[in-house]
Amino acid sequence: MSTLTHIRNFSIIAHIDHGKSTLADRFLEVTGAITPREFREQILDDMDLERERGITIKAHAVTTSYTARNGQTYQLNLIDTPGHVDFTYEVSRSLAACEGALLLVDATQGVEAQTIANAYLAIANDLVIIPVINKIDLPSANIDAVTQQIHDVLGLKTTPLLVSAKQGIGVTEVLEAVIQIIPAPRGGQDNPLKALIFDSWFDSYQGAIMLVRVFDGMVKPGMTIRLMSNDRTFEVQEVGIFTPKRMKTARLAPGEVGYVVAGIKEVTHAKIGDTVTEAARPTAEPLPGYRAVKPMVFCGLYPTNTSDYETLRDSLEKLRLNDSSFVYEPETSLALGFGFRCGFLGLLHMEIIRERLQREYGVDLISTAPTVVYRVKTTAGEVLDIENPSKLPDPAQIASIEEPYILATIIAPDRYAGNIIALCQERRGTQKSLQYLDPTRIMVVYELPLNEMVLDFYDRLKSRTQGYASLDYEFAGYRASDLVKLDLLLNGETVDALSFITHREKAYQRGRQLVEKMKELIPKQMFEVAIQAAIGKRVIARETIPALKKNVTAKCYGGDITRKRKLWEKQKEGKKRMKQLGRVEVPQEAFLALLKVKDE
Amino acid sequence: MSNSPSPNGPTLLLRYTDGGVTPTQLREYISDAGFFQPLRQTLGLYVHIPFCRTRCRFCSFYIEPHRVQQVRAFLQAAIQEIEYYAHHIGLRDVPVETVYVGGGTPTTLHPQELNGLLQAIRTAFMVRPWAELCVEGHPASLTLEMISALVKAGWNRLSLGVQSFDVRELRMLGGRPSTRVTQQALRLAKAVGFHNINVDLMYGLPGQTLETWRASLEDLLAFAPTHCSCYALTVEEGSIFFEESTRGRMVEPDPALQNAMEAMASSALQHAGYEQYEISNFSQPGYACRHNQRYWRDEPYLGLGPSAQSCLGSLRFGNVGNLSAYCSILRNERLPIDELDFRSSEQVARETVVFGLRLLQGVPDKKVSPLLQAQTEWKRALQSLKDEGLLVHERGRLRLTALGRRYADTVAVALL
Predict the structure, then answer these.
(1) Type and span of the H or E element at B134
(2) What kind of architecture, by CATH, is found in domain B349-415?
């Protein structure tokens, strides 16, 4: 155990690919927490999906012991933060567990939108920030320009440390700076317990496991704790740290970071940002900053095969055990049958859940296009939250509709300014600011409706800036808007799963794009298929898929049989994954057609 | 190969990247597939001759340009293969009902070479006296000597890849176009003693019209062969047409026009006394191709030569589609098989129905009813095809309707 003066709690703030994981790995290596033999690249990201996408989804904390140049040994707690905009709240709670942060910037890329957003979060949490420039070994490194950006954009006056995490250059200097610059935690061992939950996950043997930062008092096995947001009490069974291997300890003292097991059956009870205190001797005030996270983006998830409904339900339940920010409830669609309306923090979160359902749980899914939560005031004076476009009340009953807006920060080389502004304007954005970060890079801030954002805004931004733009956003509140529901009809029948809500002025264009895309996605059938887009009863766009005139193999002898049976079996598999809407067979992708329409 | 396949288990797809299979091993597989049990089993033999003088633009088969050296190596290997199947595998006592030598262009070989093959087959297998012995040929390679030598050796059916009687269409197909040569070859073949002759025609060709198609049909009927195959042109992967169409240099056949041409052929031929017995095949009464019917009736066939396919009971296998690999594997005393799989009894039953539906008479009840009893999903699929007017089930047989024949592949996908 270390005394308070010999503990340092810190995070690394960085944009994707700026080398956060590599630097973290170097710290573990330098401090001897892992031997080179155990060294797997990027040890802090343990889910396959995280590794594949090169992003960290869940926060982790590692405790190591470092003997500094002054001869004294320090306990370093490195708290890893999720690296995506969808998880801003989780990032802010991880940062709240620290006294300082390393701001890591790629010497070849410079400051990105995410770096700025997270740096502001750190500043808001009163953290001491140490700027670090990584990848200085690369020929395209531009240390002076990046230093200037850190100075101008973030207002950080300290001279950045220069490292190459990959080559192991400058790593020890960073650790020395952590000890000298980042303040030691404060707190009293004898005070009532006050600890911050900054991460929690589910273990099938021990229930919810919480990662906490102790601010005051101690937590140890046998103690009865209370979670202050919900007043539930639990008995602590085990505490410990990650080195990165899990290691039991006798207690967690002030300033320390570690895990607590307390027989909590549901991960939703151990909410991130909540304060843990002792039941018998509670602290007077919980830690500030707790809030219940609300899903922002919704979509319908349906099993392709109706008999997989139970499997899907069980899989959602299991995923939910580990991820309290994701919600779901059963819903029924005329087109797709029984399924679930699911809510996510953002688009990436949605994609991760969807991919995990298919990959880990083997459920073949039909997913509807993502939508946001609309707030409808009815003429009767009710306020409804609409998560499913097909549930929008009849226009006659609607007094007003509001939609969620976000504040988006985009950073890119200035040669793309025109493209970015055009995209934001097309997406109904209002420019808030435009500034030069350095002579070649701009930062644009736009207020945008979230519903424009969920329709592949990020992909479009990337393609219009050749991948150079970075984006961050935050929720900016609800605004009244002139919105209409657009329905899609196949051979005259409305397909509820394809209805969506859009701004009245964009309805024609979207309707046209959608029917055109549907025409591409739906294969020819034996009969003609009419695709229509309609607002209420008024059809605004129509396409026709001509009938398949013939489908027959002319020659079917020995060799042809071998080839055809393979081909037909493949087609049969494909057919199984189609949804029958009336007589029309519709492939899964068609339900996401809205995301696939051509660039305007 | 790690696991031994079981005929009752799920389909096993074994891929032999090289090296082939030993005769002993294949014998075990065939025995596992239950092929040797029913004593009344018969066999159809197919021999693939992989040589052509030129490649026709619609053709996607495995062929090589004709070269003396390679022909010699091929014949040696083929005779080796025949002997393995007859002696090592033990098929010598299974009566052979049909022998079909196709390609490629078998008539690029010398008649002595073709006759040598037939002789080797007759020596090695129990070829029935009444067996159908068919050889495919190109009109341009049919000389008087060739025809008389073939007749003398006992070949009793000749199948000619005429494709069209219109010289512009022939030129477009990329063979060696001459309608005069075609006409002469047909007359010679008939005069010298081939009574049973098939003529292949194609419709839906680029530039073809209903008028030129009618003219081709009239030329055909003037010659009055016992059998005629009319194929709608399809652009198959691996053909020159396919390459041209992916590069946008070919106008794809218009399905509506093809439907009209099909209707024209069907009525003209039926009017002239032919019956349509399969989607693309017409014959005078009693002259349906016995060999080809085996494919659609799920009756056993053995394919010899590169890329040839075999089906013996629940076992399906195919030879490597490469001449030099074919020869060298056989030189190493192995069979040149590169793909082999067992079908489950359910798969066999489904495939029997699917391929049986190619025949106009359809599939007898006894082949349909096991599926109807065991497979509720299959039954539902069948019902919806009937509801759509693609299938009828009457007088003890399930068959495609005229509409269904245009969507035979749609039906196949639904029922497989």
Answers:
(1) strand B126-137
(2) Orthogonal Bundle (1.10)
Residues 6+ apart with CB under 8 A from A489: A495, A530, A531, A532, A533, A534, A539
Give the domain B12-342 fold.
Answer: pyruvate-formate lyase- activating enzyme (3.80.30)
> Mutate which of B319, B377, B410 to test chain A, going by most A C-beta atoms within 10 A?
B410
CATH 1.10.10 residue ranges of chain B are 349-415
Ranges in chain B annotated CATH 3.80.30.20: 12-342
Q: Confidence class of residue A51 from pLDDT cuts 50, 70 and 90?
A: very low
pLDDT for residue B247 is more than 50: yes
The structure's pTM equals 0.75
Nearest CB neighbour to A551, from listed B46, B295, B409 = B409
**pLDDT-derived band of residue B165, with 50, 70 and 90 as boundaries?**
very high
Averaged over A430-452, what is the pLDDT?
Answer: 92
| B316 touches A at CB < 8 Å | yes
State how far residue A362 is from chain B, nearest Cα, in angstroms. 21
Return the structure tokens found at B379.
Answer: 């039954």
Of B303, B316, B408, the CB nearest to A553: B408
Query: Does the distance separating the beta carbons of A564 and B412 come in below 8 Å?
Result: yes
Q: With beta carbons less than 8 A apart as the criterion, state whether A180 and A144 touch.
A: no
Nearest to A553 among B292, B301, B409 (CB): B409
Structure tokens at B142: 């049919």
- Cα separations in angstroms, A207 against A193, A201, A251, A263, A325: 22, 8, 19, 6, 17
pLDDT, tens digit, 9 for 90 and up, residues A556-568: 999 899 889 989 9
Tell me the angle at which helices B345-356 and B365-374 cross, rounded to the nearest 10 degrees.
130
- Determine contact: B300 vs chain A, CB below 8 A: no
Query: Does residue A497 have a pLDDT over 50?
Result: yes
Which pLDDT tens digit goes with each residue over A185-210?
Answer: 999 999 999 999 998 888 878 888 99
Residue B235 amino acid letter: V
**Residue B11 pLDDT > 50, yes or no?**
no
Residues from A contacting B (CB-CB < 8 Å) are: 526, 548-559, 561-562, 564-565, 568-569, 571-572, 575
